[in-house]
Amino acid sequence: MTDSALGFGTLPLAPQTLANLTQLGYTQMTPIQAASLPVALLGKDLIAQAKTGSGKTAAFTLALLANLNARRFAVQAMVLCPTRELADQVTTEIRRLARAEENVKVVTLCGGVALRGQTASLEHGAHIVVGTPGRIMDHLERGNLELSALNTLVLDEADRMLDMGFFEDIVTVARQCPVTRQTLLFSATYPEGIAKLSAQFMKAPQQITVQAQH
Ligand code: ADP
Ligand code: MG
User: Fold this and answer.
1) What is the C-alpha separation between 167 and 11, in angstroms, rounded?
2) CA 177 to CA 155: how far, in whole Å?
3) Residue 208 and which of 15, 39, 45, 62 are 20 to 30 A apart at CA?
4) What are phi and psi of 87, to 5 degrees?
5) How far apart are CA 192 and CA 41, in angstroms?
6) Which parts of the sequence belong to the Helicase ATP-binding domain (predicted)?
């Protein structure tokens, strides 16, 4: 296999994004990135499964950034995560990968933190929200979160969100997103519930699995 075959340069990404990846030391795509990004960048719905530590965050982040217009100050992408710790990690990785674009604003919405600060951040405007399903529902019910410009919905660690009993919350949140959006589901494992969940609101998702190397 040649180096270029797994380089990010084979993808239709903005030049500043590619330059930033090089600066971050991301020279080669990981297997799940190489398998999922060409499909995700076509705008298709995707169910991607690969073990922990395989680079799933960058896979969905590069897809949602490709859909993002930073000059439009509205929430265009939302990432649902099982816990506050994971939401914080995802926010950090999105900021790293987005730093070459002009002023992409990411707001984290998780429980265990006062609503007031989150509401103020949303009022100031955000391009991307990352959070747990319960708190995102809370903001939607209060009318704090406007999703009419949303074009990418990501479910990260979907298996863990199901373990934590978030099935109904996720369905409720997904149904408040525009039907024209792209939905990307990432998971380390593929329990039965994933197919049931995706059937509720995904459009002919392509399924990609990268098996662990033994
Ligand atoms: P997962 O979500 O699959 O558990 P992460 O997205 O957290 O994995 O990625 C694991 C680590 O790999 C992170 O530290 C991330 O910065 C790094 N990483 C991701 N993609 C690449 C890449 N193409 N080249 C080098 N490092 C990468
Ligand atoms: Mg992850």
Assistant:
1) 33
2) 13
3) 15
4) -65, -40
5) 27
6) 37-208
Q: How far is the CA of 31 from the centre of ligand 2 (A)?
A: 14
Retrieve residue 94's tokens. Answer: 């999105």
30 lines ligand 1 (CB under 6 A): yes
- pLDDT tens-place string over residues 12-36: 999 999 999 999 999 999 999 999 9
- Give CA–CA dist 49/56, Å, rounded: 9
Q: Is the dihedral of CA 198, 66, 87, 19 positive or negative?
A: positive
What pTM, to 2 d.p., does this model score? Answer: 0.97
Give the Å distance between the CA of 52 and the centre of ligand 2.
Answer: 6
Q: Measured in Å, how far apart are the chain's first and last C-alpha atoms?
A: 20
Ligand nearest to the Cα of 32, by number: 1
**Element spanning 79, H or E:** strand 77-80
Residues 108-128: tens digit of each pLDDT: 999 999 999 999 999 999 999
CA-based max dimension of the chain: 52
CA 87 – CA 12 distance, rounded (Å): 27
Nearest CA to ligand 1 atom 18: 55
Q: Which residue has the tokens 């994004």?
A: 17
Q: How far is the CA of 50 from the centre of ligand 2 (A)?
A: 9
Nearest ligand, CA of residue 83? 2
Name which residue sits closest to atom 19 of ligand 1, judged by CA: 55
Q: How confident is the model at residue 1 (pLDDT cuts 50, 70, 90)?
A: very low
